[in-house]
Amino acid sequence: MSAWRALVRRLDARIAASVLAVMVVACLAAPLYAACVARTDPFMSNIGGSFSEHGVTRDIMQPDDNPLHLGLTPIGPQWHAQYLLGADGQGRDVATRVLYGGRSSLLIAAASAALCMLGASILGICAGYFGGWTDTLISRLLDIFWAVPVYLFAISISIVTISHALRIGPFSIAADNLLLPIGIIATVYLPYAARPIRARARSIARTDYVLAARGYGASHSRVILREVLPNLWDLIVTLAPLVIALTLLAESALSFLSLGVQAPAASWGTIILDGEGLLYRRPAIAIAPGIAIVTVVLCLNVLGDALRAVLDPKAGGRV
Amino acid sequence: MAEPILQVRDLCVRLSGRLILDHVSFDVLRGRTLGVVGESGSGKSVTASALMGLVPIASGSVKFGSREVAGLSERAWRALRGRQIAMVFQDPMSAFLPVRSVGAQIDEQIRAHERLSRTDARARTVQLLQRMEVPDAAQMARRYPHQLSGGLRQRAMIAMALSCRPDLLIADEPTTALDVTVQAQILALLREVSQRDAGVMLITHDMGVVAQSCADVVVMYAGVIVERGSVETILQAPLHPYTQALMAATPEIDGPRPARLATIPGQPPSPASRPQGCVFQPRCGYAHEACGRRPPLRSHAGRDVACVLYEGAA
Amino acid sequence: MRSVALRLGQGACVLVGISMLVFAVFFATPGADPTARIAGRGASPQILARIRHDYGFDRALPVQYIRMMDKLFVARDLTSFVDHGERVVPEVFAAAPVTLSLVGGAAIIWVGLSVLIGVVCALWPNGIVDRVLMGLSVLLLSIPVFWLGEVVNLVTQSRYHDTMLFSWVPPLGYVPFLQSPSGWFRSLLLPWLVLSSSFAGLYARVLRAELMAASGEDYMRTARAKGLSPLRIMLNHGLRMSWLGFVSLFGLDVAQLIGGGALLTEVVFALPGVGHLTYRALTDLDLPLIMATVLYSAAFVVIANALVDLVYLALDPRLRTGTRHG
């Protein structure tokens, strides 16, 4: 695997992969952090709670510093294991919630990217390999879907499914099931991933080795599995990080519009939404998950670029 | 003897650490077209690029008239390019920008080097196209490259190259991409240019082209000049084994059809695998011990040849 | 001329198809029945029946569809199911200038910025400037637009609003151009920058890649051999060809944004644009408004595609087959 070795030699790829790994491990360790460090329940409202530091007990919700002391503001970031990033509007530990939110965000992003790549590969290979009317039908449909604003498309499906749950025959998926955002986001990015795969499958289908394999009497499924897929692999690997970056951004946008992950569960998008109301007084709530998103998406994009440079040197960074 | 327009002495070019041109020396004389012949990879095109200042010159001397240009700054080269040395490329379809009219591209070169109004530049463009025997020149100038035939495109290319009255015109395989009937016309045009306008250096892999339109010839192999002299001398009696092989591989137009065209066995060396001694030695039928040493170009029988066979017998 | 007519016909077919699809999906959505919504909570069966009859919900779906299209396009008095009596067409026409202003300004910024970055990077590839600018582009590409908007709001509306730097920033919201041109500009400058950021990053990367790919082409070698300066070569030759890929990308993106894709920016900056309106229509399941906004959006995509084709014709003479003079 010379490509693999070339990838490992690249400093940008090493840094991006390490940062990503740290983020993933930190998010997976969220329950550990909640139980051992922050010692709070990230999903339970804690408005009346207090915490003690150096023997001094302080309320989590502090009176506002307006002259009349009306309203309550959660405490801000503390140099303390608890409430490192402060509390949110319901007195919950923001740092813990960001870690938990990362679990949902990363899970949804990865799962929907996997689903999207799977669907895109099937569609792209069918269209590119078989050509003819199959190709025309699939390509036209993908073109039309790609012309719809991605977020509006996702919002429409979300509203139809999330606000009324989804019932397909005997199966019903509850509104707070993570499968819904996963499926929705995978669907809206299908054209993005399917179109390059189709183009590549099309050129592979016209190569001599595929024609030769067909000439020997190999079946379509055998040719696709033995000849087409192995030659598509590098494209799929290159696309994957970019698709995960897009699905992560889409997830956070949907959740920000409260159409993704449903309360009490959290994702980075919902935490930014939670923080919106307190933006001017406790900006840490909205800023922290945003930085997490930017970090992960940036690493994925850098990794994607590095992969492309290694696997397809001729493209020279062509997007 | 005609005055030299271009004098190249011991020109060396290195690209990514590899020696591509190894002490190349030749002259281009006024009114005499110089042919540079060799297989692909022999360094012909790199020589052209070096003379255009498009690749850095590692060592050696390149003199235009009396001016030394090796080691000029990029800015100075830019003033020279297009103005004193111009170039015509192999495929006029891809060498012209497809989205602008041919005339606009010629105007651009004129206006890059001379302070001229648009109308004056266009007037000169049309005049040039007429001189290149382009019919209906004013109309043609307004067309896009894809709307012209291959021959007209190459004529327009030559017109563009001559637009600033250069001293030297380098034509890199100018007929390879054209139809056979058009090739002869373009070669005739280039002959005329060499007599009337500028010195011409014609790069080709085709001995037939050299025979048709050159007065002098330089035979290159693996970045080295192996034989150099006037066309009559060399075509009548090629001395270097490589020149002989190259000639044998070119069918004669009016001679008997050969049963089998001669080929040169083996592959030309890459810059990385270039032999220490004579560069042609691995493929040469006459190779012997003395070939382990690189023979210098020596005058022999009216031309210069780099081969041990002719050393000492001058 | 015939191709123009053909395009218009195709566009009309697409619009009809989309409107039918929206209509069908709406009535297939569980819980979307507008009757109960119009009647309000706890309405008696008699009232429900009357509303159903008044609004024509008891008729066959094709009839309902034709009636809705008639009200939308011919009578232009289609009213919302949710806000009683609110007419849909004027609402869309009120929202459109906001979105057009937002997207137009942002497009100018991102095209200018990305051309600058792309050309500078392609002039000195793999140098320090190239690396820094390309790094910046990936960063811009990686920032969620709504979060960037919030951070900008935090800085300019709250934290540093009273400093010299940001005291010019007006409160969130839109100021119509005719009311105050300078207010319009000030209210939109930050949304423009925020919306254009990720596009600037993306387009700069695309353009650099296109220019780098072009630099190996024969026509670029010719340009160098003509003795042109690197900048001239880049602008007159490289960019002239790279525009082609750029234009199709640009057309689709702008159409999507004008058609409501700028939703997140509009929400964060409280701009009452089309994206906002579509979002409201969708969350309220308000079919007339959904229909109006979706058709408006689709119309822009159709128009943009036609425009892209026209611009292609203008930029690439090779496509103008049959023309004898340029």
UniProtKB/TrEMBL annotation, chain A:
Positions of transmembrane segments: 106-132, 144-166, 178-194, 232-250, 285-304
Lineage top rank: taxon: Bacteria
GO biological process: peptide transport; protein transport; transmembrane transport
Keyword annotations from UniProtKB, A to Z: Cell membrane, Membrane, Peptide transport, Protein transport, Transmembrane, Transmembrane helix, Transport
Location in or out of the cell: Cell membrane
Any one GO cellular component localisation term in the record: plasma membrane
Topology of the protein relative to the lipid bilayer: Multi-pass membrane protein
Main location: membrane
PROSITE patterns: ABC_TM1 (PS50928), PROKAR_LIPOPROTEIN (PS51257)
Domain ABC transmembrane type-1: residue ranges: 102-304
Sequence similarity: Belongs to the binding-protein-dependent transport system permease family.
Name this polypeptide is given: Oligopeptide ABC transporter permease protein OppC
Organism from which the protein derives: Tanticharoenia sakaeratensis NBRC 103193
Automatic annotation (TrEMBL), chain B:
Subcellular location: Cell inner membrane
UniProt similarity note: Belongs to the ABC transporter superfamily.
Name of this chain's protein: Oligopeptide ABC transporter ATP-binding protein OppD
ABC transporter domain sequence ranges: 6-247
One Gene Ontology molecular-function label: ATP hydrolysis activity
Natural source organism: Tanticharoenia sakaeratensis NBRC 103193
SMART domains: AAA
Gene Ontology annotations for the cellular component aspect, listed alphabetically: plasma membrane
From TrEMBL, chain C:
Keyword tags: Cell membrane, Membrane, Transmembrane, Transmembrane helix, Transport
Domain ABC transmembrane type-1 as annotated: residue spans: 96-312
Record-annotated membrane-spanning stretches: 12-32, 102-125, 132-149, 184-204, 243-269, 289-315
InterPro entries: BPD_transp_1_N, MetI-like, MetI-like_sf
GO CC annotation terms, alphabetical: plasma membrane
Gene Ontology annotations of biological process type: transmembrane transport
Subcellular location: Cell membrane
Topology of the protein relative to the lipid bilayer: Multi-pass membrane protein
SUPFAM superfamilies, per the entry: MetI-like
Family to which this protein belongs: Belongs to the binding-protein-dependent transport system permease family.
PANTHER family in UniProt: DIPEPTIDE TRANSPORT SYSTEM PERMEASE PROTEIN DPPB-RELATED
Protein name: Oligopeptide ABC transporter permease protein OppB
Organism classification: Bacteria, Pseudomonadati, Pseudomonadota, Alphaproteobacteria, Acetobacterales
